[in-house]
Design brief:
The chain has 13 helices and five strands. With 328 residues, the protein is mainly alpha-helical. Helix 4 packs across helix 7 and helix 10 packs across helix 12. The mean pLDDT is 96. The chain binds adenosine monophosphate and tryptophan. The site of tryptophan (TRP) has 13 residues, from strand 1 and helix 7. The site of adenosine monophosphate has 17 residues, from helix 1.
Length: 328
């Protein structure tokens, strides 16, 4: 069975972009792959997090994994920080990473732009992400489009290690949705929808009240043409809304175009709002059940145990190959 690994940062409210770009594929891949799904808390702290918020958001992400349909009997669900091998391999990976390649990462450039003091952790973040992946010798990495560059670096680091220390790491492949790999902000289709955005109206949070979601969709920016047509270059706003529609219903983009042929944006947006609300309501109901049931911490414990066993094996072999004296 091929191995799948991914993670989401507990750095804010999860958005429908996280769901469409990543989580939806986690759920899909769990049936015929050996899966590891993390809450990447060590990554989240590369920008300052208020401790109480980090704690709550970490539990939220874990509960949303379950609510979205990830089955803990199939996939290992765990906190990155519960598997300390990640941080250790992360350090080893920083030593084979070059400053130049880290400086080229667009996520680093975006997050550090205009800041007086930029944390060193933010800079070496991609080396830790490479460790997350390589420590399980994962084959497939379901992520949104914005993570492509980090994955390319992971592949480079895997090849570099294999070249220096002998063929060992699996070189992973990204697994990115064809439509919806980058869900854009509702107020500005040139920016990706981001859980760390300061503009509430720019994002649909998975835990937003359905009434709020309806309002946000009705206010979402569109063009003046009033033609429901998928054309991400010339009509980025409506195309983005159509992606959201397609992923929260069983209609394809072509079927949505046909359904709203000759209609204005009003009816389209109204239906979209209902569609998203009816998709999110059962998800939220399951989320609240999970939080109430108290099952979360047992799930995380057994997930971490499974992950640790696999991770320790890799770490030992990496250290042996690099020349470390192993304890006897
Ligand atoms: P992050 O929120 O940065 O931890 O991202 C978690 C996962 O969700 C990654 O695989 C991202 O690529 C994906 N993701 C985040 N925002 C979006 C978005 N707006 N559209 C599509 N995928 C996204
Ligand atoms: N960097 C990813 C993001 O911002 C999160 C992440 C950390 C990740 N480690 C990972 C994603 C390993 C996939 C695999 O979204």
């Amino acid at each position: 069975m091929k191995r799948v690994l991914s993670g989401i940062q507990p750095s804010g409210q999860l958005t429908i972009g996280n769901y469409i770009g990543a989580m939806q594929n986690f759920v899909k891949l769990q049936h015929d792959h050996e899966c590891f799904f993390m809450i990447v808390d060590l990554h989240a702290i590369t920008v300052a997090q208020e401790p109480a918020a980090l704690h709550e958001q970490s539990e939220q992400v874990a509960a949303l994994y379950l609510a979205a349909g990830i089955d803990p009997n199939k996939a290992a669900i765990f906190m990155q920080s519960h598997v300390p091998q990640h941080a250790e391999l992360g350090w080893l990976m920083t030593t084979i990473s070059y400053m130049g390649e880290l400086e080229r990462m667009t996520q680093f450039k975006d997050k550090s732009e205009g800041k007086d003091s930029v944390g060193a952790g933010l800079f070496v973040y991609p080396a830790l992400m490479a460790a997350d992946i390589l420590i399980y010798n994962a084959d497939l990495i379901p992520v949104g489009d914005d993570q492509k560059q980090h994955l390319e670096l992971t592949r480079d680091l895997a090849n570099r290690f294999n070249h220096r220390f002998g063929d060992f790491f699996t070189v992973p492949q990204p697994y990115i949705p064809e439509v919806g790999a980058r869900i854009m902000s509702l107020d500005d289709a040139s920016k990706k929808m981001s859980k760390s955005s300061a503009v509430a109206g720019s994002l649909i949070a998975l835990l937003d009240d359905p009434a709020v979601i309806r309002k946000k969709i009705s206010r979402a920016k569109t063009d003046m043409e009033a033609v429901v047509k998928y054309d991400p270059i010339n009509k980025p706003e409506i195309s983005n809304l159509m992606s959201i529609y397609a992923h929260t219903s069983d209609l394809s983009i072509a079927e949505i175009e046909a359904k709203y042929d000759g209609q204005m944006y009003g009816p389209f947006k109204k239906d979209l709002a209902e569609q998203v609300a009816s998709f999110i309501e059962p998800l939220q109901a399951r989320y609240h059940e999970v939080r109430k049931s108290g099952e979360l911490h047992d799930v995380l414990k057994s997930g971490a145990e499974r992950a640790q066993a696999a991770a320790q094996q890799t770490l030992d072999e990496v250290k042996r190959r690099m020349g470390f004296v192993m304890p006897r």
